[in-house]
Structure formats: C-alpha cells, structure tokens
Amino acid sequence: MKIVIDARIIRTTTGRYVERLLNYLQDIDHQNTYVILLDKKDFDGWQPTNPNFSKRRINIPNYSLKEQLNYAWLLYRLKADLVHFCMPQQPLLYWKKSVTTIHDLTLLHHKNYVENNKIMYDTKQAIFKGILYFAAHKSRHIITPTKYARDDIIKTLGAKPERITVTYEAADPIQQAAEEPVALLESKPFIMYAGRTEPHKNIRRLILAHQQLLKTHPDLQLAIPGPKDGNNQMIEQWCKKEGYKQVHLLGFVSDGELRWLFKNARAYVFPSLSEGFGLPGLEAMGYGTPVVSSNATCLPEVYQDGAHYFDPQNVDDIASKINDVLTNDALRADLIAHGKNVIASYSWMRMAKETLDVYNKAA
To answer: Is 0.85 topped by the overall pTM?
Structure first.
C-alpha cells in the first residue's frame, strides 16, 4: 500500500504520539510505502530512517479554507491507498479511504474563553463538533488512546464500536538532556504540574490546594512549567491579584530543566477535569516521582494503582491527597513501586503494531 500520514501536529502537545508512531512504524514495516506530510516549519526537524518513508512539505493551516480545498486536491493527487489523519481536522471533500485518530472530546465538553469573545468561541466549537462528527462517520476506522475516549466517541458522536480501536500510548524518559537545576527551586521542596493551563486543566483549584498546604508545609513551592499563552498569563495575573505565594509559572523550560523538575519534585499533581490519555503522569512515574491525580475521565484507567486519586472539583480533597503523599513515606514508596510497573505495561512499539493492523483492516 501507499499510506499517507498527516503529521502536521508533530510539534504540538499531542505531537509525541505522532513522532513515536513514525519512529516505530519505520522499524516494523518494510513492505508499505509512506508519505509523511509535515508543516514547513517542522520539515527539517524530522528525517526518515527507512527507505520506504519519504516526506513532503505542505503549508496548510488547520481549520482553514486551504485545508478544505487545496489539501483535498493534494491528497487526491497523491493517489494514496489510505490516509491517516493524526487529528480530527481534515478536508470534508476528501472521500477516499482514511483512518482518523481522535484523542478525546475535551474541546466539545469544555469551554476556553481566553479570547474574551464568547460568540466567536461558541461558533468555532460548533464547527469543530461538525468536523469531529464528519471524521467519525467518514473514516474507515478510528484510533483512540483509551477505552474511556472510545466510549465517549460512541456516545457523543454516534460512531460504530466495531470501527474504533484503542491503541494505548506510552512514555519515554527525556533523552539526551543533562539535568539543569531550576535556580529558584534549588534546595526547596516543591510539587509540580507540567503542561498547558486551559480551564479544563483545573490549575486554579491546584493553586488553591497549594495555598492550603502552606499552612502545614510553609516552604512548599508549586512549579508549573508550560507555554506562556493567554491562559497562563491570566492565571499569573490572578495569583498576583489574590496574593498567592510560592506559585511559579515557569514558562518554557529546557529538556534538562524539565528532567530536573521531574526527578526532584516531591509529587507530580495532575488535576485535570478531562484527558484523552494523560501522558505527563506516566512520564513522572518513569522518573520515580509519586503521582497524585484527578479521578476524572480516563486517568484511573491509565494510571491504575500508580497514583493517589482525588476529586478534581474539591479543593480540600486535592490538598488532603497531596498531603498524604508528602507525609506518608510508606504511601510514597508504594506509589513509586506501582508506578514503575504501570509504565512498564505500556509500549510505543505495541501501539505502532496495533496501528499497522488498523491500516490493513481499513484498506
């Protein structure tokens, strides 16, 4: 077969999935030929290692008129036997065989009004729901990372269960990065969360829980590395207005700094209200960091007995469960041990093999 993979999200927050899929497909598939479509800014950052794989630079913005017209025409000209869209956004006019990865439906269930234009946001959300519905029903097969996400896709979009395959993701340690201490946190106890700060990530309740913990842990810091976008800036302004102490929105950190944060945190806290998989918690387990997690959506399915769970809507419960991990050495040791077993149960190689099975079935 000739398989085209839309890898335009390879440098986004879900890009790790795409990068690992391409990496392991090249190891296991020497029969099919692949064309990998990359945004022009990412083109030089990914190189094929298998002669059956080639790459093509494209300039097709997501959710644009060019995506609907130019991209569809490009795909038809490539004459692929199968196209894998690694995200739901895709041209409505492309009707040949395709597979779509839908990580979750968080953007349908939660709103992010950081743009301060509710009408515009609601309009975009309605359009996105239409695209998701189209992708779910047009695609020969849907790939999703958890059973929770699969069931949500069936319930919300009406997709057929027999056309959905769960391919669990995995976590790798940060490679080729020497540890770089974060100066303002050296020699200080801290808990951490890493990632984006949209409202469904529930960061404000985490900060409120941290402020409670200062009553019994006065030196405890909260570290939040992640992009300095509009959500991040709004949280920073809120903390300043309320006078919250020892909360550090670090912005971008290097791989070495992120590695140091994971290895030195007293706990990794994941307060999210909705996830498709929850990769950062697994990464923390890989560094031997105890995980304290929300019990929402797919997180108990993914983290199993490797996390100490709380109700993400309850600030008191968040603070209490973090305190358990900070003060109970036996619990910490148990979580670290179970975490190592949990992370060992996932495999990017298995994910790639299962994805190749989906390609064969869909074609």
So the answer is: yes
